[in-house]
Amino acid sequence: MVSRRSALQSVGPLLAGVGAGCLGSGGPDADRIRWRKSVRGAPALAGDDLYVLDRLTVFALSSADGTERWTVGYDEDQFDRRLCLRDDVVVDAGRLYVPACDGLRALSRSDGAQVWSVDAPLRSAAAVESGRVYVKSDALLAIDAETGSVDWRAPVGGERLTSPATTPNAVVVTDRPEGVVTAFDADGGRRWTHRTDAETRSPAVRDGTVYVATAPDPGRAGRLIALDLSDGAVQWAVDTPSPRRGTRPVVGEESVYLG
Length: 259
Fold this sequence. Notes:
- There is one protein chain.
- By secondary structure, this protein is mostly beta strands.
- It has two domains: 40-155, Lipocalin (Beta Barrel); 159-259, Lipocalin.
- The protein has helices spanning 4-9, 12-15; strands at 44-46, 49-54, 57-62, 68-73, 90-91, 95-100, 103-108, 114-119, 127-129, 132-136, 140-144, 150-154, 165-167, 170-175, 180-185, 190-195, 199-200, 204-206, 209-217, 221-228, 234-241, 250-251, 256-257.
- The strands form six sheets. Strands 17, 18, 19, 20 and 21 form a five-stranded antiparallel beta sheet that branches. Strands 1-2-3-4 form a four-stranded antiparallel beta sheet. The chain has a four-stranded antiparallel beta sheet with strand order 5-6-7-8, with no helix packed on it.
- Strand 11 and strand 12 (150-154) form a beta hairpin.
- It is globular and about 45 Å long.
- The relative contact order is 0.08.
């Protein structure tokens, strides 16, 4: 699994120098840009490679100089609706996982060849942990990363689940509009459910604590809640500005950062 530090660093080579100047062909910071590539999407960094999905094309790029390792293109006619592929791809040691409205595709990191696919309309981004890929379809699916077989499925309800947060022993999901946080054991057993009575954002887990940003008054007021991963008990809560949709807390050694 790509670490939080790696995920943050993954945008560096693409956007170096943006903070102090403009990302153009000239300007005071043009000499700080290591390389540029005309692709859009959220990059995932693994080893020396960046993986980016730009609408219908998956790019594997050298993180050092942007050289294309390989590309895989899809035809829009393959999908029931436009923009079916999600650009929030995830990676592990050997594969790249591409979620879409028609299912999940696992591609080989070495050459982009499809290793397996799971046909199930997805309603959230994927997360990979300890040899499993977790996605939300009509239920929460735990998929064997090696074979693509579904190890278990657990009903969670709701149509708009956020991206899962995972540990080797648990997976946590939230239903954004309903404000329900649910934790499952690694074998699919429901561990606990907590109702926030507010819009929820994507959860984060660290050292036995689940952190969830909520929006009791979207656009105006928010709240950050810390829950015990073992039983869902509230450890603490603090008022914050209203977090935007898609916001996930970033947890450090002693502090939690909420954008």
